[in-house]
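Hi Y.,

Following your request, here is the sequence exactly as I used it, all 318 residues.
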Amino acid sequence: MSSITFHDIVGARRVVSRFLQPTPLIRYPELSDLLGFNAYIKHENHQPTGSFKVRGGLNFMSRLPEPQKRRGVITVTSGNNGQSIAYAAKRFGVHATVVVPNGNNPEKNSAMSALGAELVEGGADFDEARELCERLRVKRELYYVDPLNEPALFHGVGTYSLEIFEQLPDVSTIIVPIGGGSGACGAITVARAINPDVKVIGVQAENAPAVYLSWKAGRKVQTDSCQTVADGLATRVPSDFPFSILRDGISQIVLVGEDEIRAALRMMLRYTHNLVEAAAAASLSAARKLKSDLSSENVVMVMTGANLDTETLKSILK
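Below is the corresponding structure, written out as tokens. Let me know if you'd prefer a different format.
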């Protein structure tokens, strides 16, 4: 099985920095007073695709062999990974096919199409869409960019954790939402190399707890459903690659409820004046639960994305 290395994350930054500026890391005084620790936000929601995953897409596409670039790539997504691949493919002149579940966020679908991706809908959820993606890959002889098993994606994503340690050398805790797990895996790898005392805490939705349950059991656990407002966290079963890193490397995983996620979205708007997607707000939800344990620490909450659709926004602000 492949792994993630600090060396390859450093190498990925040479690629990513050609296209992207470091995202801001900001301490918010009111939020800090409210939570009882130094509350920093890593604003990956400020990326051109509205998500941290664009880092991985650029790193992957830069390393794709030329013959495969000419044939094209295919991936599966609920939105942010697809936008990442579509954005990077356009930059490198590669045709990208993106498979999404039926009923996927229409605004994310529109964004992927606008970036030039060919959109294919099918399957009740991410895992069923992934099966369709595999069939199309074989039929069309495309390279399958597996969002849960492609090391180049994880190395690219890991570059935001390098920035955290450069921007805040005395960081003590990093809180990261976990869907597929690339962000948390990158943070674990960078923390181990630079300062193993830094805690990396993951967050999952109570309605989509597959990684949490697997971490607790020490083996992969599949759930029957993953219906959550935080669609970026909606996975029914962890993938082998990230789980092999999360199982022993994550300090803790916190479950947060739907009402807690919605409340955190409103808090993000109130205290940071940023509209973020539900998965991104999960970091703040977890921080609120853990605030007594994090007292006076320097805590970075990763705001992983900004792709909040208008219908979800309306329901949250009611």
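The longest helix spans residues 126-140.

Thanks again,
Q.
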